[in-house]
From TrEMBL:
Pfam families: Multi_Drug_Res (PF00893). Keywords: Cell membrane, Membrane, Transmembrane, Transmembrane helix, Transport. Belongs to the drug/metabolite transporter (DMT) superfamily. Small multidrug resistance (SMR) (TC 2.A.7.1) family. It is a multi-pass membrane protein. One of its GO terms (molecular function) is transmembrane transporter activity. It comes from Streptomyces reniochalinae. This is Ligand-binding protein SH3. Signal peptide: none annotated. It is found in: Cell membrane. PANTHER family: GUANIDINIUM EXPORTER, SMR FAMILY PROTON-DEPENDENT DRUG EFFLUX TRANSPORTER SUGE. The chain crosses the membrane at residues 33-51, 58-78, 84-103.
Length: 104
């Protein structure tokens, strides 16, 4: 259960990061509210997960999911460059996250 909550929390990290950008420095109401709700839910999920998963592992997985998700969103939606080297670096992060899960 804790791993599932952690994965959802990592996805919520991507959501709050993209909502933060869309809020335009908190000048837009709905993206700002989405940011706050997603941030609170993401932190609550991380808090629950660390009660059953070692802190370092849980945090690294949470950040990895959020970082990869946010980078992919930037490439797919915001026009960030999607070079082979950038994608390979993201695969390295995914490999590290999977490794942490397998070695837990």
């Amino acid at each position: 259960m804790a791993w599932g909550v952690l994965i959802v929390s990592g996805c919520l990290e991507t959501l709050w990061a993209t909502a933060l950008e869309a809020s335009k420095n908190f000048s837009r109401l709905w993206p700002s509210l989405l940011f706050l709700v997603a941030l609170a839910a993401s932190m609550a999920g991380l808090s629950y997960a660390v009660s059953q998963i070692p802190l370092g592992t849980a945090y690294a997985v949470w950040v990895g999911i959020g970082a990869v998700g946010t980078a992919l969103y930037g490439m797919a939606v915001l026009g960030d460059s999607a070079t082979v080297t950038r994608l390979m670096c993201l695969l390295l992060i995914v490999g590290g996250v999977v490794g942490l899960k397998l070695l837990h």
